[in-house]
Amino acid sequence: MIRFESVTKRFDDGAPAVEDLDLEILDGELTVLVGPSGCGKTTSLRMINRLEDLTAGRILVNDEDVMSQDRIQLRRRIGYVMQTSGLFPHRRIRANIATVPRLLGWSRERIDRRVEELAELVGLAPELLDRFPHALSGGQQQRVGVARALAADPPLMLMDEPFAAVDPIVRTHLQDELVRLQRRLGKTVVFVTHDIDEAIKLGDRIAVFQDRGRVAQYASPTELLAAPANDFVVGFLGRDRELRRLALIDVADAGVEEAPVVLGGDSAEAACETARRHGRDWVIVVDDARRLERWVAVDALTGPTVADAVTTGFRYTVSAGDSLRGAVNAMVASTIGVAPRLDSEGRLEGVLTQASLNRVLA
Amino acid sequence: MNAIRWSWIGDNTDLLLEKTLEHVHLAGLAMLFGLLIAFPLALAAVHWPRMYGPSLAATGVAFTIPSLALFILLIPFTGLSVTTSLIGLTIYTLLILFRNIVAGLNGVPRDVSEAARAMGYTRLRQLFTVELPVALPVIMAGVRIAAVTTIGLVTVTALIGQGGLGQLFITGFTLHRTTPLIVGFVLSVALAVVIDLVLVALLWLITPWRRGRE
Predict the structure, then answer these.
(1) Chain-chain contact of A148 with B134 (C-beta, under 8 angstroms)
(2) Separation of CA A190 from chain center
């Protein structure tokens, strides 16, 4: 556990960067420090491994005051990933990853074994290990940065906007992998970002920094979005806060409504009756096994059977594991305002409508 | 009429070899002392940026002293000795070496130094195993210029009784012979070119990460 106790950091030029910060970071969690630039989040992070020395207060890592420890030893025990990969340009990837183990004096065999293990863990192709950093893409370099931080298996990792400089597609990918890694390894991660989406996506807990290390709110993403503590947090979460909330809720947690379902061979008359019974002006067409096919408007049922009518496909469907944000997307895209929810076999379980969201958001 | 008497060269191969070696020896020692002085000076200037201006000014002023004048100034203290020529030659290497070592170290990307710190490098290890290697290309550029300059300058020290291949100029001049003059000239130019190429090859050899990049 990391505990900040009334921590103040003052740089030479006057105003404190962090003032009287109290914060507790729990073991095995991914804690995100988020806030606008100049809010003190990065300074707070850098005080943990003494890249900056604090001016007043204490920081305890596992009940030990960092200021009373040798800073070189302290840093070797804490993983660090930075925005630009900061890889050593004159060393091959293999040696870059091995940085801390080499400083710690591990044997060659142990280092080699560890490097290959890490390459696999962070998804680096083995042939990249013998290249120099400049031959790697930004995303690959960042993976190496993560592998280097993990090399000596530190229980604690500090990450300073590690994905800010890579393109959005790679970033999403790296974020997903970080979550996967953290779940698997159970590391304590302190992650700094200015991107609230990233914070919500990654954080078990989020500390929203307002200014000078003042924490406006410290909560889980769900709590943060459901009950922002003040106007600053509301503003920082942005105008699509409710949509962000939806992103955190599984469609399985929202109810589904029964939908008017017909088979292709049903008569048009029966289909209209089904629609009427459900109070809808459309029906969903499924096959014998209740697997979703298409939908058709009641007005279009002019032939003798459903199969004679012009039907429309669903561009999106959802199933358990997807977020409600995906469900809203499916609703908007369907033009009849519903998101079909399917089970793992592709069978229709029902549809989500805006009403199904109200229940979980309330 | 032949300007060169080839037989003279044949008759004096031992002398030419000796003078060439002497030349290399003088230039090499001057470079060594130059590096030994410029390196700590550059480290200090990187660490305390306030020192950079004065250090640059001092080495710059030394660089502008006419070489002959400097040697003559030194004679009362150190005589017509190797020491005199070495002091002079070393002083002329300082500006270029100092400036390039500072530029090289300051040119190490911030994130690279920062990463080294964050990984738990000691200051000294960071300097020698991270910052110096990364700064090497810029430092070597300075070493090349300084080496070539020094090789040219060594000939001037012939006037105080040293000078390696420069001695051949004196010989040619006093005996009114063109052959030693031309041979001395060609050999010292060739030496400068060869040393420069050797340094380029050395840099290539010790910086594998830069190959195929430019």
Answers:
(1) no
(2) 14
Across the interface, of B120, B209, B213, the residue whose CB is closest to A103 is B120
- Does the beta-carbon distance from A99 to B119 stay under 8 Å? yes
**What tens digit of pLDDT does each residue of A232-258 get?**
999 998 888 888 888 888 888 888 889
Query: Are A49 and B119 within 8 A, CB to CB?
Result: no
- As a CATH number, domain B6-210 is 1.10.3720.10
- Please tell me which of the candidates A51, A84, A88 has its beta carbon nearest to residue B130: A88
A130-187 pLDDT, tens per residue? 999 999 999 999 999 999 999 999 999 999 999 998 899 999 999 999 999 999 999 9
Structural domain spans, chain B: 6-210
Residue A358 has phi, psi (to 5 degrees) of -55, -40
Place of tokens 């390696």: B164
Q: Do A103 and B119 touch (CB under 8 A)?
A: yes
Find the range with the poorest average confidence among A95-99, A118-122, A305-309. Answer: A305-309
Residue A54 predicted with pLDDT over 90: yes
Contacts (Cβ under 8 Å, ≥6 apart) of A53: A47, A67
Chain B residues with CB-CB distance to A88 below 8 A: 112, 115-116, 130, 134
3-state SS, one letter per residue, for B184-201? HHHHHHHHHHHHHHHHHH
